[in-house]
Structure to design on (521 residues):
C-alpha cells in the first residue's frame, strides 16, 4: 500500500469520520421517526422547502463519479475530457431536466407512483411493463459499485488503510442507516452534503490558480509540455474522447437521457405543491452546474503528477483525484475537501439505495409474491418495511463483492463498468418517459418496443464489437447508448404514428357514422 497521507491528516481524518458519522445518524433517527410505511420511505412524509429539495437534487445528481472518478478521465486525457464531461453532458442533462420535470411531476402525482417502474407501468397501464422495469433497475447496482469504489479510494488514502476493510466499513455503515430513514432523512442529509460540496467545489476549482499565472495560454502550455494531446479538444489516443462524435454528439444524447434515472427524475415528487417547482429547479440547476465543473481539477492533478506516479508507484485512474487531494492541501483544508468528496459519494449512494430497494420491494417482490403478504393493512406496512431492510442487506453484500473485484481488476476505470450498466437503463427509460409526458393516447406497444430495442441495441453494439468505436481494449459505453436511444426513439415514434392512424379512423367513424360523409359535411 502506498501511504501518502501525513500522520496529522490521518489523525484528523479519524476525527472527521467519527463526527460526520454521528451527524448523519442524528438526521437518520430524526427522519426514521416519521417513516411509517413504504410510501413514506420512498417519497417522505415531511413538507420540505423547494430549496432543500433542489439542493438534494444537485447532491444526488452529483456522485463520486463527478468529484472522484471523472477527474481521473480528465487527468488522463486532458481538455477533450473536460469538454465532454464538464460542458457537454451538464448542458444536455440540465436542459433535459428542466423540460421533463414539470410534466413528469404532473403525471407522477396523477398515477401516484413511488418509483420509476410504477410510473411507467401506471402511465401505460401495464403491470408486465412495470415488472420489466423493476428487473431492469437492477442495472443500477453498477452505479452503486462506482460510488463504493470512489469512497473507498478517498477514505483509504486519507487514513492510510487497506482498501478491503474500508470498503466493508463504508457499505456496512451507509446501507445500515439507509434501512431506516428513507426519503425523510435523505433530504436532510443531502441538503447538508450539497452545501459542503458547494464549498469544496470552489476550493478544488481554485486550488490550481497558480497554474494560470501566465494566463490560459500558459496553462495550456504546461499541459502541452507533458503531452501535446492534453491541450487539444480531441484526443485520438484516448478510448472515450477521440473525435467530436464521441465528445459532443453522443454526450448530448446521453446527457439528455441521464435524468431518467429514478433517483433524479422522481426527486420532484417530493415537492408538495406545484408553485415550488421553479425555485426547486433554479436551485438544483445552478448548484449542479458548479458541481460538474469540478472535473476540471483533473487537469491540475495531471500537472501535479505529470507521469501519474506517486513515490515511484503508478496511480490507477480511479485514485488520481484522491492522491491529488491528499498531497495538495494542508491538513485542515484537506479535511474539508475530503468531507466534500465523501458527501458527493454519500448523497447519490443514499438516493440509489433508497430508489433501488423500493423498486425491488414494490415492483418485483410485491407483484410476484404479494399474495403471501399479510392481509391486515397495518401488518402489511410493517412487513413491507422489514422486507425492504432485507433487500438493502442483500444489495450491500452484492455491492461489496462486485466493488472489491473492481478495486482489484478495473478495466481502465470502474466508471466504464458503471456507465455500461446505467446507460443501458436510462436508454431504455428515455423514450417511455418522453412519450409519457408529451404525447397523448400512446399505444403501449411503442414504449415497450423502445425499451426492448434500447437494451438489445446497447448491449449488442457493446459486446458484439459493432462500429469501429468498439474495436479497442476499452469500449466507450456512450456510443452504444447514444445509438440505442436514437434507434429506440425513432422506431417507437414510427409505431406510435402507425397505430394511432387506425385509432383516429375508428374514432372518426364512431363520431360521424361515416368518415367520408363527415368530411363532405
Amino acid at each position: 500500500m502506498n501511504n501518502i497521507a501525513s500522520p496529522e491528516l490521518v489523525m484528523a481524518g479519524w476525527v472527521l469520520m467519527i463526527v460526520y458519522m454521528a451527524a448523519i445518524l442524528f438526521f437518520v433517527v430524526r427522519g426514521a421517526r416519521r417513516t411509517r410505511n413504504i410510501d413514506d420511505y420512498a417519497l417522505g412524509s415531511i413538507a420540505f422547502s423547494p430549496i432543500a429539495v433542489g439542493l438534494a437534487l444537485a447532491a444526488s445528481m452529483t456522485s463520486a463519479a463527478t468529484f472522484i472518478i471523472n477527474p481521473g478521465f480528465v487527468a488522463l486525457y486532458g481538455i477533450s475530457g473536460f469538454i465532454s464531461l464538464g460542458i457537454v453532458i451538464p448542458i444536455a442533462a440540465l436542459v433535459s431536466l428542466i423540460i421533463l420535470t414539470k410534466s413528469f411531476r404532473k403525471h407522477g402525482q396523477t398515477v401516484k407512483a413511488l418509483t420509476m417502474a410504477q410510473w411507467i407501468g401506471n402511465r401505460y397501464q401495464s403491470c408486465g411493463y412495470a415488472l420489466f422495469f423493476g428487473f431492469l433497475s437492477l442495472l443500477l447496482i453498477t452505479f452503486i459499485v462506482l460510488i463504493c469504489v470512489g469512497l473507498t479510494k478517498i477514505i483509504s488514502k486519507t487514513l492510510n488503510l487497506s482498501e478491503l476493510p474500508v470498503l466493508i466499513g463504508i457499505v456496512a455503515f451507509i446501507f445500515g442507516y439507509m434501512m431506516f430513514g428513507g426519503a425523510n432523512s435523505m433530504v436532510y442529509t443531502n441538503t447538508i452534503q450539497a452545501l459542503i460540496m458547494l464549498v469544496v467545489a470552489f476550493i478544488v476549482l481554485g486550488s490550481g490558480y497558480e497554474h494560470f499565472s501566465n494566463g490560459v495560454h500558459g496553462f495550456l502550455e504546461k499541459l502541452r509540455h507533458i503531452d501535446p494531446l492534453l491541450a487539444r479538444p480531441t484526443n485520438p489516443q484516448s478510448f472515450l474522447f477521440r473525435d467530436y462524435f464521441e465528445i459532443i454528439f453522443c454526450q448530448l444524447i446521453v446527457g439528455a437521457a441521464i435524468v431518467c434515472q429514478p433517483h433524479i427524475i422522481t426527486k420532484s415528487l417530493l415537492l408538495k405543491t406545484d408553485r415550488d417547482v421553479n425555485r426547486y429547479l433554479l436551485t438544483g440547476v445552478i448548484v449542479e452546474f458548479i458541481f460538474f465543473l469540478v472535473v476540471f481539477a483533473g487537469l491540475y492533478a495531471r500537472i501535479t503528477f505529470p507521469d501519474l506516479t506517486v513515490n515511484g508507484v503508478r496511480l490507477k485512474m480511479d485514485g488520481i483525484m484522491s492522491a491529488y487531494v491528499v498531497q495538495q492541501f494542508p491538513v485542515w483544508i484537506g479535511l474539508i475537501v475530503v468531507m466534500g468528496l465523501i458527501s458527493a459519494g454519500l448523497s447519490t449512494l443514499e438516493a440509489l439505495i433508497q430508489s433501488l430497494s423500493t423498486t425491488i420491494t414494490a415492483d418485483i417482490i410485491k407483484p410476484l409474491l404479494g399474495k403471501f403478504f399479510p392481509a391486515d393493512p397495518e401488518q402489511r406496512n410493517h412487513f413491507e418495511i422489514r422486507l425492504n431492510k432485507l433487500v438493502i442487506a442483500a444489495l450491500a453484500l452484492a455491492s461489496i463483492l462486485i466493488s472489491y473485484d473492481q478495486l482489484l481488476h478495473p478495466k481502465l476505470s470502474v466508471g466504464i463498468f458503471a456507465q455500461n450498466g446505467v446507460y443501458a437503463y436510462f436508454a431504455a427509460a428515455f423514450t417511455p418517459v418522453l412519450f409519457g409526458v408529451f404525447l397523448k393516447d400512446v399505444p403501449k406497444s411503442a414504449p415497450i418496443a423502445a425499451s426492448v430495442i434500447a437494451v438489445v441495441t446497447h448491449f449488442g453494439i457493446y459486446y458484439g464489437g459493432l462500429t469501429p468505436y468498439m474495436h479497442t481494449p476499452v469500449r466507450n459505453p456512450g456510443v452504444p447508448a447514444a445509438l440505442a436511444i436514437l434507434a429506440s426513439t425513432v422506431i417507437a415514434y414510427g409505431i406510435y404514428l402507425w397505430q394511432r392512424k387506425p385509432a383516429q379512423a375508428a374514432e372518426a367513424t364512431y363520431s360521424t357514422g361515416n368518415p367520408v360523409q363527415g368530411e363532405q359535411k
About this structure: Residues 515-521 have pLDDT under 50 and may be disordered. The longest helix spans residues 331-369. Residues 7-370+383-399 form a domain with the Sodium/glucose cotransporter fold (CATH 1.20.1730.10). The chain has one domain: 7-370+383-399.
